[in-house]
Amino acid sequence: MSKTISINAGSSSLKWKLFEMPDEVVVASGIVERIGLPDSIFTIKYGDGQKYETTADIQDHEVAVEMLLEQLTELNIIESFDEITGVGHRVVAGGEKFSESTLIDDDVIQAIEDLAEFAPLHNPANATGIKAFKKVLPDITSVAVFDTSFHTSMPKKNYLYSIPMQYYEKHNARRYGAHGTSHRYVSNRAAEIIGQPIEDLKIVTAHLGNGASITAVDGGKSVDTSMGFTPLAGVTMGTRSGDIDPSLLPFIMRKEGIADINEMVRILNNESGLKGLSGVSSDMRDIESAAAEGNEDAQVALDIFNDRVRKYIGQYAATMNGIDVLVFTAGIGENAANVRQAVADGLSFLGLKVDPDKNDVRGEERIISTDDSKVKVLLIPTDEELMIARDVEALKD
Ligand code: ADP
């Protein structure tokens, strides 16, 4: 049976999941961390709960891929390399060029590198992962799956900022969004679960993890999304501010003596959001427990998070002139029942009602709205890796 591997390469890490296709069975998964540093950590999970872990000096992504394939054979997860017939790579920025998943050739690699301007930390790392696999397994189907592709269906009125048109025309300054693979997976899954064609549905998908984004999916197409030119925009996140008035930047810089705009952007990306508000943590679990113990800043951080998520859902109901389905996914969306309940409670004017008993669940695919709710509310664990493997499968000849 042929296997496909989904890859998410970071600058010093390589996360992967191996599927038997077309059955979509997960055979193994793992992560290589600290690539290029001493004592890289190499982990494989396989079988029924077995785990292999070792440390070694893994100097680059190519060595990581070689080691991964050797260990897969060693642990009898595959008999030979030939079993792996496809690889799908997550790529963060696809710009306007890549509206769908694409077979990788040298031109595609070059284009991914050229798009680094839009994702300076991610695209070069994604390209490194691609090249490493190309070198070690040159003949298998190799596919790039872009976080932005799903959002290329947005109409101009939703992707343009209200700034001089020349900045879009000259520099492609516009909204691109992110988490597209997740929004695509959960919106399609939602339609399947409720048994209606996605073409007939107005869906809002709330991907609430460390990074969080909300998307309006009308008839199966993304028509608007909360992240913007970069993933800094939209709702309050773990460490990211989400939407703010840009005039705050020169004001804070002047008051705080911050000379470099890049330092200000770093603060908005890394020191803001739940972390900056609460002073406690960027992690929702810590925020919830600090708030429960009476920490007022943590409570206000939680209130702001819920409020921003709720507002975007309301906004997107207006964008689509209606909402049939709301989906919660990712770390917070899948696990934080209180967040789901609080968000939903403020949307009762839409006829949206979450059933507290059905909502008392973590990480399990299910409908959590009441039977009489006009809007179906679902919890769907996201599966970007599976979506990537499916895209590879669809492009195999
Ligand atoms: P990433 O964007 O890094 O992939 P995840 O989707 O893994 O993030 O989500 C991480 C977030 O999910 C963290 O804020 C974490 O606190 C939150 N989370 C995970 N489990 C729970 C839980 N049981 N209750 C509340 N929040 C949770």
TrEMBL record:
GO molecular function annotation: acetate kinase activity; ATP binding; magnesium ion binding
Coiled coil start-end: none
GO BP term (any one): acetate metabolic process
Enzyme nomenclature, EC number: 2.7.2.1
Cofactor-binding details, from the entry: Mg(2+). Can also accept Mn(2+).
Site features described as Transition state stabilizer, chain residue numbers: H179, R240
Pfam families: Acetate_kinase
Recorded family membership: Belongs to the acetokinase family.
Assembly information from the UniProt record: Homodimer.
Name of protein: Acetate kinase
Gene expressing this chain: ackA
